[in-house]
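Response regulator
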Amino acid sequence: MDTNDPFATAVPTPTAARPLLGLTILVVEDSRYACEAIRLLCLRSGARIRRADCLRSARRHLQVYRPSVLIVDLGLPDGNGLDLIAELHETQPRVDAILGMSADLHLEEDAIAAGADGFMPKPITAIGVFQECILSLLPVERRPRGVRVLNEDTVHPDHIAFQDDMAHIAEVLEDPPNETALDYAAQFLNGLARSTQDTRLGEAAQALADKRAKGAASASETAVLAALVQTRLSQKIAI
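Predicted structure tokens:
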């Protein structure tokens, strides 16, 4: 139960159709596109969602209330999501379920080592997979009773959320960006590219990440990536 949530009333009982009914999920995610996908998943599953776009915002939320489930992206603009997971793993009373989330599957072990109960790979769009990932970590009394058919539907975030992400990262790549900003832009766009199946953007983001990992000059890769961001930013939806 959200014992510190001033807006919480009686907790409704989950059902087969809405198995996450009664849960409040705090999503710590800087990508509007990824967060919109989770919002739609929560809406179809019965859960309430709250969003924090950085570690600082998440900590402010957690001073006010305790969510049922915490989903933390591991690459955030003001630090590593692993730090927040480690903090909350030790906090009492503990959140019922803490999940790390990333497009980099190699980070699953790091998330578990930090104290996460599970790991959610990006992109996550399948309703049934999302529900099972959370339900498997909850106490028995928080799960729906009886037989439940796995929901095979998927969600599709609005393209406007993608445009918001492009505008955000375009600002990061201005002026020129410092080393921290380059690393952040590479991981952010790599994850977004996987979510949107944008192969060209993903290849460019990975090329920048590879150069950064080697400590090599990356002006050319940065310029290519910035140009791709501007191209996608200019592709407005016809209204």
